[in-house]
Amino acid sequence: MLAKLRTRVSALLLVAAASGATQVRAEDVQGVWTRDDGAVKVEFSACGGAVCGAVSWLKSASGAAKVGQRVFSDMVRADQITWTGKAFNPEDGRTYSGKMVLSGKKLKTSGCVMGGLICKTVVWMR
Questions:
Q1: Are 73 and 99 in contact (CB under 8 A)?
Q2: Which CATH number fits domain 30-125: 3.40.1380.20, 2.60.200.20, 2.40.128.520, 3.30.40.10?
Q3: Burial class of residue 99 (count of CB atoms within 10 Å of its CB; 0-12, 13-18, 19+)
Q4: Which residue, 116, 89, 27, 114, is CA-closest to 99?
């Protein structure tokens, strides 16, 4: 009887630990990410019930982007590694449907028009 109880408690602890690991993974997108060309850093953080990203550093201040400018907004979880929301492009001043996909230490962001037929994708690193 005691052995069965220990087995059940161990199983419950294992399930709790696994769900806790999933929660940590779900929040992995938060933090500072550097665009693959090294020109900009964006900090992703919680905003309301979603995730938003704002420019936190620029290699050159001569472009259209400005530090503090929100470039990702209303990003809500579609699954464990994907968020959907809005992506703002400072270069043309337009907001697009946005998507983020987390893969380890890489984050792919896309801004799309025409229902996703035309997209621009950027890769970010921690």
A1: no
A2: 2.40.128.520
A3: buried
A4: 116
**Residue type at position 43:** E
Distance, CA of 78 to CA of 31 (rounded, Å): 19
Report the alpha-carbon distance of residue 88 to residue 115 in Å, rounded. 16
pLDDT in tens, the chain (126 residues): 444 434 343 433 333 333 333 343 445 899 999 999 999 999 999 999 999 999 999 999 999 999 999 999 999 999 999 999 999 999 999 999 999 999 999 999 999 988 778 899 999 999
How many CB atoms are closer than 10 A to CB 67? Answer: 12
Alpha-carbon gap, residue 123 to 107, rounded angstroms: 6
Structure tokens given for 97? 């449907």
Domain positions in the chain: 30-125
pTM: 0.77
Instruction: Give the separation between CA 33 and CA 38, rounded to whole angstroms.
Output: 10
